[in-house]
Amino acid sequence: MPPTVCRYGIMGTAGIARKNWLAIRNAGNSRLVAVASRDRDRSRAFIAGCQADVPLDPAPRALGSYEELLACEDVDAIYIPLPTGLRWQWAVEAAKAGKHVVCEKPCAASVAELESIIAACAAADVQFMDGVMWMHSKRLEPLRAILDDPATVGEIRRIVSQFTFNAPDDFAAANIRMDAELEPLGCLGDLGWYTIGMILWVMHHRLPTRVTGRMLRSGSAARGGAPVPVEFSGELLFDDGAGVSASFFTSFRMANQQLVSVGGSRGSVRLDDFVLPHVGNELEFTVSQPAFVNDVCRFDMERHDRRVAVAEYASSHPTAQETNLFRTFSSLVLGGIPDPRWPAVSLAIQRVMMACVESAERGGAEVRLTE
Amino acid sequence: MPPTVCRYGIMGTAGIARKNWLAIRNAGNSRLVAVASRDRDRSRAFIAGCQADVPLDPAPRALGSYEELLACEDVDAIYIPLPTGLRWQWAVEAAKAGKHVVCEKPCAASVAELESIIAACAAADVQFMDGVMWMHSKRLEPLRAILDDPATVGEIRRIVSQFTFNAPDDFAAANIRMDAELEPLGCLGDLGWYTIGMILWVMHHRLPTRVTGRMLRSGSAARGGAPVPVEFSGELLFDDGAGVSASFFTSFRMANQQLVSVGGSRGSVRLDDFVLPHVGNELEFTVSQPAFVNDVCRFDMERHDRRVAVAEYASSHPTAQETNLFRTFSSLVLGGIPDPRWPAVSLAIQRVMMACVESAERGGAEVRLTE
């Protein structure tokens, strides 16, 4: 009888892994069997904390090294929330050990690094997928249908995507996201992975032909080191701008905003919570097709908004997008045939992101991309 | 006894003047006494059309030349909806004739032109104001209070402003807005005056220090001529980007969108209809202060949105913003002391707009502005 459950190990004890502890439990076809850190006590503490909140039976094993995790015969897949600076090495090692890989974002610090991870996964015939949750929301189905409907949005012209949060005062001291060795892409890697990813998703993962990026603000870790992006904007032009243009903005110093606006020849669509959906049991977006009515001296703009919603809990639920991620990944693992579309999506995002970095380094000059 | 009514003449018969026919009637302290065109029959037809919809008693006089209008002793102020290419000459002539000037936007085709209009108005001691209606909405009072409140939006980081409409198929043939002689600034002049104006309003009319512009698409009138902007984006950096960045987008080929988002360290504000308010008797905006709540394995994003509304009809009403414009302008005229803040606002917008044009002509290179 073929296996019906994909068995996971978590490599690292980053905070986001606690969310996925719950997601793996809720997925139905997934089981967490081990958590590894370079320090077994840290693994134990992580497991104890999660067990007190969301108990698993049996509890996962606490491991004291990543090598130990890769040697586990009862682990099919590794979830890697390690810092970006360490991720490349261990993602490649995981693939070489025959493990399927769920990789946090940004997947790598360069295109070459990500290409080598993806090549290692292909050589080992294992699935690669990045850990982006929003791509697994059921909300995307009606959103795609409306974007592709010629009568609703029509031909797409402009995409805006902004994702920000205001970091606490101790961020530079307490958080690795401003450490140039661990997270060299700063807010662009942490938040821009989502904004660029959404723009590319809207565009069916076609690449823009011209890219600009601008480092609006940079900062260093409290202990020093090279500066990383703290506020970053970019513009992506598809078909040299003749078709669609897209603007994105990311910041560690603006209150949370998760705005997506897609405007087309016939109407527009807006999401207010595209990354981390607002608490509730429905995920929604708004379709706007305002109508201008002129009758001699009267000039009126009629609002025609339509709310579209899907039944899906925002988080911590079997229907939630992070749960869908692990359910989908486990299905691919259990099916035995890796889906190359997932690594292709990650690579497209990484390529655009690095082109933005190159542009910013050249003072905002346009960088050309080719398919 | 001092006069209690400001008497207007309209110079030109553009469609937008019909809206202001009604606005002048509703203002309470304003009266339309003459309409001038280069062809008296066109003036008569314009008046007949408006009288059938919104009758004035007595009906305004139909004049056959702009000179004739400027010679009218019973005209205090001229509203100039002429094409941009003709506006400069006649705005200066109006000021020289001692008439106060309400000038449609874009006010001029260059900074020098607008400076000469403003200088002529100053020399004649007459009021200058551009015809932008949204600046006269009562909605701006609570919006300003919230933007300036340290606990709500906090320090502003990012402003996005988009204003678009999808022109009909015969636009290039039937509309002057793609005629390089009459409207050399195309969509940037027609729509960007609003988007840039809103960004500057949010910033208390401080100028950005660095500006980029990008001609995403250009087009020519059906009868030929130089290309004008049909789709245009820009980014404005205040304090060299260390403080606030702003992105704007204008297009003649995207369905109507009038988006403003202002994000700050504590929250954000969104308007969906900043130029032409949606039909109704309230004008609104939304304040968002989402809260991220993390409890071990649970990661929730709580939506905290607040709708702020003011009682104001969207259009065609004594409370509407276009009516407020003429009521305010008439008050200034009747008060006898021109307010220099209005021409200063117009000049700031024109300066930023022309810097965007210069950047676009230089392939998107940054253009520096100084106060």
Describe the model.
- By secondary structure, chain A is of the alpha/beta class.
- The first copy, chain A, has two domains: 141 residues, 3-Layer(aba) Sandwich (Rossmann fold), CATH 3.40.50; 204 residues, Dihydrodipicolinate Reductase, domain 2 (2-Layer Sandwich), CATH 3.30.360.
- Chain A is 33% helix and 31% strand.
- The first copy, chain A, contains eleven helices and 17 strands.
- In chain A, the strands form three sheets. Chain A has a nine-stranded mixed beta sheet. A six-stranded parallel beta sheet of chain A has the order 3-2-1-4-5-6, sandwiched between helices.
- In chain A, helix 5 links the parallel strand 5 and strand 6.
- In chain A, helix 4 packs parallel to helix 5, helix 5 packs antiparallel against helix 11 and helix 9 packs across helix 11.
- The longest helix of chain A is centred in the last third of the chain and has 21 residues.
- The first copy, chain A, starts with 5 loop residues before the first strand and ends with a strand.
- The model of chain A has no long low-confidence stretch (mean pLDDT 96).
- At the A-B interface, helix 1, helix 2, strand 7, strand 8 and strand 9 of A face helix 1, helix 2, strand 7, strand 8 and strand 9 of B.
